[in-house]
Amino acid sequence: METKGTYSKAATQAAPEKNLPEKRISTGAISATIWQNELKLKTGESAVFKTITLQRSYKDKDNKWQHTSSMRLNDLPKAALVLNKAYEYLVIREQNSFSSEEAAETDIEEEIVI
To answer: By Cβ atoms counted within 10 A, which residue in 35, 45, 65, 73 is the most buried?
Structure first.
């Protein structure tokens, strides 16, 4: 029985929500994206943790935007800048969460560093 490309209505309704980025920091073609992830522990409790992805955008030979995690020598200062900004954001946010309980934001924040 082939089910390729076919999904039951129940399966699509039960699909988890797409994880949207919490914040994106970019300068030029280099960007760092902060993601909030939730992990279900064996005890049944949930643990929340953050991850950061680093990428470079470029146009291919067909003039279409592509993304890669490979950096060139000249990309490294910009990569360091966006990673430092991501670190600052996470540290400040962590400090603020200890001082006051804030509601979770649903909007994606974007910061462009010039």
So the answer is: 35
Query: 12 lies in a domain?
Result: no
Reported as a single tens digit per residue, the pLDDT across 36-78 is 999 999 999 999 999 999 999 999 999 999 999 999 999 999 9
Question: Worst-scoring range by mean pLDDT, 29-38, 41-50, 103-112?
Answer: 103-112
Rounded alpha-carbon distances, angstroms, from residue 43 to 18, 25, 39: 24, 35, 11
Say which residue the tokens 């643990």 belong to. Answer: 47
Q: Which residues contact 65 (CB under 8 A, 6 or more apart)?
A: 57, 58, 59
**What is the number of domains present in the chain?**
1
Check residue 62 and report its DSSP letter: T
Residue 86 domain-assigned (yes or no) = yes
pTM for the model: 0.69
